[in-house]
Amino acid sequence: xxxxxxxPPDYTPPVQIVQTSIEGRVLNEQxxxxxxxxISGGGQITTTNEDGHFLLENIxxxxxxxxxxxxxxGYFRGYRTLMVRPDQSQYVxxxxxxxxxxxxxxxxxxxxPFPEGTLTxxxxxxxxxxxxxxxxxxxxxxFYIHPIxxxxxxxxxxxxxxxxxxxxxxxxxxxxxIVFTMEDAAGTALQPDPAKPASFRIMIPNELTSSxxxxxxLWRFDEATGFWKEEGQATRQGNDYTGTxxxxxxxxxxxxxxxxxxxxxxxxxxxxxxSNTRVTLLTKPDFIPTFGFTNVEGTYYGKAAANTPMxxxxxxxxxxxxxxxxIGPFSVAAExxxxxxxxxxxxxxxxxxxxxxCDQFNVISGKVIVNVEQRNYTASISNGNFSVTVxxxxxxxxxxxxxxxDSRTNQTSTTTIRAGAGTITPALEVCN
Length: 432
What we know:
- The protein is mostly beta strands.
- It has 4 domains: 15-96, Immunoglobulins (Immunoglobulin-like); 100-257, Sandwich (Chondroitinase Ac, Chain A, domain 3), CATH 2.60.220; 259-343, Carboxypeptidase-like, regulatory domain (Immunoglobulin-like, Sandwich); 345-429, Immunoglobulin-like.
- Helix content is 1%, strand content 55%.
- It has 1 helix and 36 strands.
- The strands form 8 sheets. The chain has a 5-stranded mixed barrel.
- The longest helix is centred in the middle third of the chain and has 4 residues, at 152-155.
């Protein structure tokens, strides 16, 4: 079932602050979990556990642009921007980028080559944080982000939404992306002199050269707002884009397109919400992507391209396609209520559990965090019952850990069982 309603795609809704929770995982370049990374969002700070998992609970954020940042030594700071609904926990996933290091003289400047392009720093063009000239050794760290690689959804900062020079929010089609930082010997941040900015030359992937324009808007990621901000333009030279960067950080060469807000409710064959599921929206025929995950209620809530047909692709943890569906075009906000997915029974673990307190009464309200194969799934306890569906890559038995919390008593218990696929009915006792 489909409904379309609301304002046109160029309308920017008023900002609303809502209370919600954001959970997710942080991975490294080998898709392994990153432990003890610092996570911040909504004024709250936490760290990832041994599975790379984190939870920011009951935080107050902007519903249109909640920003989560991740910091870990040896990696660039990561960011994710997402749209959230009140009191519906949202899942995110980030892959941290390794810092490639080069040292240059601020006095003489230098050109730093890398496989996908170059960074060039003019002589005497480095400033301290206090905007004073700096003439020592500069440690430059950089990374090229491939705009159509399979990992870009987890690597890129934000969510490919930009605010142009007219203060209009738009979707971005990425053609080339880079990040760089500058530090002195003590690790204190340095900046290019805006009057003598750094310049870059970065590759346009072969798959995008036929559609890459000669002049393209240039964007810098704004860590405070979670949006890309238009700052000038880049010029195509052969199969590269060239431009200048007056600040360190993330820079992007991208064209724009209008967007609408899309809500899609995803359920399995038992009509149970399918949470933490990756959603990719591809425009037709240009294959411009938008990425996101379903929340704890199985709802995708985010942006989609306006006025063009799209393909919606749902994938599991193993990158298997669960469903591919043609949707759109939409000219205004739309809601799809019948995205039904048939899960493979031999790789699906359905958990229908119960939770009682120390006196063997039903836990009226609370939550359960279910850990399976280094991934966490959150379920709400209501009148002693909870349920969650876990998509696995195997039917072999594994350890399933339940961390249950009673909201009334604040008591927590942890229970571990072995399970494979099919339906299980664990009985938890939430009692310290």
